[in-house]
């Protein structure tokens, strides 16, 4: 483990049986309470993405906003919001996808992505990959290109990377469980 990974791992709180029995929840709240670590995380993403062409970052509601926006500022690119259906005030494009036992729908404004725009999809956690893939679909629906994905944490045992391979092989994850 590199020093940044060690710092992140020591700050993340493992909460058993949340939100239901049998789940070990990885709580990033303590990470957010450490401004020096947050700065290091933003820098870590920036360094790992320096050779990736990025015209905008699409952050997934809501925890994807936490590091997506600072990263967009650090890279000098726009930050685009991907939100749950019904949360955006203007005309939107939406994408419905299946979860393990239900379905969900995300959307973004219709004028967020320009044709040919290279968009990095960002969220705090990669689990099954369904929400990140849905965000990538929104980018594609507007003529954009998915330049990659970035996540603070990956739960590798859920195999979410496989779902993202068809969009782009570039996936940056700072800590993997």
Which residue ranges are poorly predicted, with pLDDT under 50 across at least 5 consecutive positions? none
As a whole number of angstroms, the C-alpha radius of gyration is 16 Å
Counting structural domains, the number is 1
Range of strand content:
25-35%
**Helix fraction by DSSP (H/I, runs of at least 4):** 25-40%
* Biggest beta sheet summary: 7 strands, mixed
Descriptive report:
The chain is an alpha/beta fold. It has a single domain, classed as Rossmann fold (3-Layer(aba) Sandwich), CATH 3.40.50.2020. Helix content is 32%, strand content 33%. The chain has six helices and nine strands, in the order αββααβαββββαβαβ. The protein has helices at residues 3-11, 29-32, 35-48, 64-75, 130-141, 160-164; strands spanning 13-16, 24-27, 56-60, 79-84, 92-98, 103-109, 118-126, 145-154, 171-176. The strands form two sheets. The chain has a seven-stranded mixed β-sheet with strand order 5-6-4-3-7-8-9, sandwiched between helices. A two-stranded antiparallel ribbon has the order 1-2. β3 (56-60), α4 (64-75) and β4 (79-84) form a beta-alpha-beta unit. It is globular, with a radius of gyration of 16 Å. The mean pLDDT is 96.
